[in-house]
Structures are given as structure tokens and as C-alpha cells.
Amino acid sequence: MKKIDSVYRVAQQYGLTKRTALGVVNDVLSQIEDEVAKGEKVVISGFGVFSRTMRKKRTGINPNTKEKLTIPAMPTVKFSAGTKFTKKVRQKK
Length: 93
Description:
By secondary structure, the protein is an alpha+beta fold. Helices cover 43% and strands 29% of the residues.
């Protein structure tokens, strides 16, 4: 599923224009991005939690030269699926 598929579904389900639905979907995603970037957790009950974590500094290998290199610590995004979401994924079809 692509974002545009969600936009079409929202537009159809709520009787919105595609342009308005796109604005709504983009706004929700932007809010999630902004809060996680600030270090806040975003909890969507039943769906999951988005949070910012730090990835530790580690050693990697350049695949071209086989030279070892240090990959610096950096922030990354973590998603933990909620119970309702997890149960739906685990259901047999």
C-alpha cells in the first residue's frame, strides 16, 4: 500500500476531496515526524508507538575496499506495534 492509496481511502470514507484527504494524511504524518524528531513518543492506541532512540557507535566494513570504518552513533526511529495491530497481523487468513 502506498500513501496515495490511504489518501483515496480517506477521501472515499469521509466524503472528502482527494486534495483535502491528502492534506489530512500529510498533516498527521508531519505531526508524527515532528514529535519524534523532538524526542517525544507518539502513542497511537491499538496501533503502536513511534519513538526516537540512539544507535550505538559501531565498526563496519567498506564492501569495496574491505577497510574497517567507524560508523558514528546516530538517532534513529523505533516503532513498536500495539497489541491490537499485532493480533491482526498474526490472524490466519
